[in-house]
Structures are given as structure tokens and as C-alpha cells.
Hints:
- The protein is mainly beta.
- The chain has five helices and 41 strands.
- It has a 26-stranded antiparallel beta barrel. Strands 1, 2, 3, 4, 5, 6, 7, 8, 9, 10, 11 and 12 form a twelve-stranded antiparallel sheet that branches.
- It is elongated and about 115 Å long.
Amino acid sequence: MRKVIVLLALILGFSAVAEESQGKLAELYADQFESQGDVVTASGHVVLTYDGTLFLGDHATYDRKAEIIVVEGNVEILSNRGNKVLADRVVFEVGKNRVTFKDFYQSDRDDIWVYADEAQKEDGNYTLRNSVLSSCSMEDPDWSVKFKEAVYDSTTKYMRLRDVKLYAKKVPVLYTPYLGFSLERQRHSGLLMPRLGYSGDEGFYYEQPYFWAISPSMDLEINPSIRTSRGYGLYGTFRFVDSPWSSGKIRLGYFKDKASYTQKHDLAYNRHYGFELLYESSNFLGSWKPEGYRDGFYANLNLFNDIDYHSLQYSPLQHLEETSRYKESRLNAFLYNDAQYFGFRTRYFIDTTSKENNETIQELPSLQYHKFSTALIDGIVDYGVDAQLYNFWREDGTRALRGVASLPLEFHTSLFGDYLSLKIREELSASDTKFFQENSLHIDQNHYAAVVLHHGIELSSDLIRGYDSGLHTMVLSALFSKSTLLAEGDLRFKDLDETLISDYNLDMVYDSKITFKMRHFWESFDDDLSLDYLAEADYYPGNDSRWNLLRQELHLRYGHYAFSSRVDYSVYHHSWAQLSNTISYSDQGFGVKLEHTRKETSQYETLDDSWNNMLDQHELTLSARYRSSESLTWYGGYTYDLKENRSKKWHAGVLIDRKCWNFKVVFEQKITPVLTNDGSSSIRNNKVYFQFNLVPFGGVGSGKKASI
């Protein structure tokens, strides 16, 4: 589309005067006039005006009998289109509705210029002859497009070019005898730029997208591709707008591996296929909903047989935040007003590390009701209501139907002249969970019900102080929380199997806990320094006065430097729940970033001696860029897996940017997850990506991005 708009502006620019002058009175100004019969000659600072368009030249003639106006000598045309137009000679044949330019030159605001020996407009048709087009310097341009003739029909809005050549400097690199396309400011069907790459494991990669503009409200992009050492595939994406308040995308894909590639990596599947749907509506029920209510519908479906279905896509759709193991699909529908909310949700998970998905717990579906916080005693006491019903299902293993309801009541007031805030919260919660086996409605532990009262008392204070150099904000709080078990069914919580507790989140009883928080914000008026610091700690007075989770988070920026850190440490488990640190420097010429991440999978908020902490992620990443000149930038990155003691991925590339064109090439090695006959595995792969663009027309390449 960008290419279409630029060409339209360039080709039609010289027609501005003809379009704007029809039926308008011309006014001619000059230092000197001479008249011989029907010919009037003007010279010296000639200015010809036509309804907001000025023609400046050395001299002009007007033949009253032939109805011809000629402006010659360094002609400059100024119009409200904002383009710069120059010519050596402009001829207006008023009776024939024809305008002819000699030695025509035009440039637009994007520095795109076109030169033609001759340009002409007649009866809605525009013609350029012996033309050169480029966005580089006119003197020895790095690239240019030359064509013998270009004809534009304003009725059909279609452009035809003959004898088209693309030059790199003075060397022809591409030729076509004919090129035709529409210049309407609308989407049109046709081939898109191809995508190319190379992988040491998969061979050369080529994808040729085709775009089909079905209607103003829908289109289809078809993406056939081939990987010479691996196989071939086809993806298709259908995009649509079905109402002013709703739109969506549907994608289907299929890729077939060669037998040699499947055997080499012992892949579980040699065919990878899937279905994806993204859809949103902010008025799904339309007139069917009650007065005063709003509604919404959201669908995010991500269904596939193998993780390679996603890995093989050039441009994946944006799905929900997912772990490396599970991919989620979700359907949401909700109805609400200012007082209450009704919701319906379905969640479906795919375990990408397993050939079977029969043990994965699904949420099919859940229902929710929420009454927003409402004043019981105005300004002092608020209450709300929450209720959920979950249907947890899986093909093999225990299933559950779980209902949870809660009634929170909160008292809040300020003390000591608003320096201190007090909140007292009581929340009554009740739950009932029924367990089912795959082929039976009864198991030994088939029903658990409980009523719990949660207590909370919080003291907090927000303090703000201004200084000459900036503003400081401090937030302090202490929250005491405790749960009291009021009643249980025949089955006791202490007798439940630990698997049931973790699978269905049954722990509703908490020990006495005090959570201390302190947060500082600093913002300089000159924007040189900003700081955000958080410290939080959990203290359990009922467990021999033990501390457990300590959390510290810092975000600091000073000039070109930035530092961020998060530390979650379990005192009781003597283990790091999360440790991440990032330090970076960035300016126009140089940038570097060092990141360290360490995460463990554990239940850190409980004091459970039986829990075994698992190291989930431990990585170190270094990335950098360096601009060695105005047109040359180098960049790269490296990630080392400290958990596996091996290199995880790296990339290195260079960007050459000459303003009117740019070229980027990236060398990359990364580990891609795959599913084999023995389970989850990975492939280490070396790849090369490149991108070449003629600014602003676009270009060809893989389009992959790699930066710090």
C-alpha cells in the first residue's frame, strides 16, 4: 500500500494545475508585456496563477486564437499539494484539455523524485515518457527505476508501465517488459514480497505469499512455502470485520516433512497441522441484552497436533501468554453493568511435550458472578459478592466439579489527618468439590466441602514530598491476615491426597501472616533520574515466628544507563524463587544489555517441609549493537543455559542503511523444541535471514527481527 500511495502522488502531481484550473480564470503577472496580433508575450519574473496554483518562469506566451498558454524557462510549480514540481516548459492547450511538460521533475515530502523527458495530461489520462524514479540523490543514485512509458487512466485508476528496469548504480539488475497495477487507495489482490532464508538443517527457505482482497470487509492471505531439506507446506489466514464492533482472524496450516528429515530427528509426526481463531466483539448480544448492560465475547483458539505447526510459521498469530509446555485456548463471554458481572469461560490446554493430551486438566466450562464493591455504609463499609462454578475435565484421571462463593466485607477509614489509612476485611468463603473417576462417579475421596472465614487488617500510609530536583513518594503498609476454618464435610482437608489439592487448588486455609511492604518512587524534574523500589516480606507469627518469602524489586534509570532487579527468596526453603537482573546502556551509537534470570517452581507461600523445589530456568544473556558509521550498524546476542550448561542461542547481524535503501543480514543459532517418539526434545539449528528494502517501496527478504 505504501508503494501505491507514493506512485500515485508522483504520477499525478504534475496534473495538479490541470485539475484545479478547469473553469478558473488565469491571471498573468510579469515585469514586461508585449502583444503581436493574437499572441501576448510576458517576460521578467513571470507568475501565472490558477486557483491557488502558481507557475513561476522566465517568460510566457498566450495565443488567444489557439487557446494555448506556454510558460518556459526554469518553471517552478507551487500548489496546495505540497510537492515540489519543476519543468523547463509547460504547455496548456485549453481547447483540447491537454497539459504537456518538458524536462519534468517532481519530488515529494518523502524525498521520492521522478524525472521525465515529457509528461502529459489529456482527458483523464496521464503519461510519462523516458522516466527515472528514485529516493536517492539525483547525482549518481544508488538505485533507480527507469521506464520508457507510464500511462495512468484516472477512470479505472490503473497504471501501466512499459520497458521497466531496476538499476543498482548504473548496473541493471531487474527487467520486465510490462508492469501493471491499480493505484486506488484500497487493498487489491496480488502477489506479496517473497520471503527467503537458509537453515543448515532445513535447507533454503522460500515463501511466496498471495493476497486476495475478497471485499472491503474481508481478505485472505495464502502462504505456500518450501524448505528444500525438510519439506513443503501451506498456511492460510482469513481476516474479516463482521460488524462495527467485532472482527477476527482464522488460520489453517499444514506442513509435510520429508521421510529423511523425519527419520533423522525421530519426529513423532511427519505432518504438522492446526487451526487458529482470534475473534473479539464488544456487542455480541446486540439488542438481546437487558437495558443498561454491556457485553463482550472473546475467542482465542489454538488447536494443533504438534508444536512444529507453530515453529514453521513465518508470522505467528498473537495468542495468550503461555508457558513453554502448555498452549491455551479460551472462550469468554460476559455481561455486566455498573453493579454486577456475569461471565462464562472455557479453557483448553495442549501439552506440547506429550503425544497424548489425555491427562491434561481442562476447564470446560466455568461460570462466574461478581457484584462490584458496593457501599453498605457510605464511605466507611463496602461489600461484594463472588461466585464461581468450575467443571474440571480430562480424558484420563480424576475430574472435578467445584463451586466457590465468597462474601467480602470491608471497613476503611483514615486516621491522624489522612496520614494513616485503616482497612479491616472479613471474607466468608464456602466451597464444595465433587470428584469423579473416568468411568465411575465414586472414589474413596469423592467429596470435599469447607466454610472458611478470612480476616485481614491493614495499616498503610502514602507520603509525597517535592524537592527542587524532583518528587519523592513513599508507600508503607502492614497487612495481618488469618483464616479460620468454620466447618468441613465428612472428608477432612488433612486427609486429602496431595495430588487433589494441587490439581484443583483446594487450599483455602492460611496460617497467620503479616505482610510488610515498602515502596519508593523518585522522578526527577529534568528526567535524568527515575527510581522505583519495592521491598516486601512475609512473617508467620504462628510458626515459631518464621520469615518466609522476601521480595525486592528495583528499577533505576539514569541518563543512558538502566538497571532492574527482582529477587524473591524463600527463607524457610533457603531457595531463590526468582532472581532476575538486567543492566544496560544505550545511546545513538552504542547499546549493550546483560540479563541474568533464575526461576524455580515451588510453593513458596507455604511452610511445607515435603515440597521439593525444582529449578525451572537459569540463563545468562548478553546482547549489543554498535553503529560504526551513519549507515552501518552491527548487532548480536548470546544466551547461555546455566541449568543445562550449554549454549542456548546466539545471533549476529549487520544493518546497512543508506536512507534510500537498507539491507540487513542475520546469522542465528537456536534450540527449537520438537516432539519425538521418545517425548519432548529439541533441535539445534543454524539459520540465515536477510531483508532488502528500497525505501519507501519495501523489498524482499525473510523479515526476521533481531535486536537488543
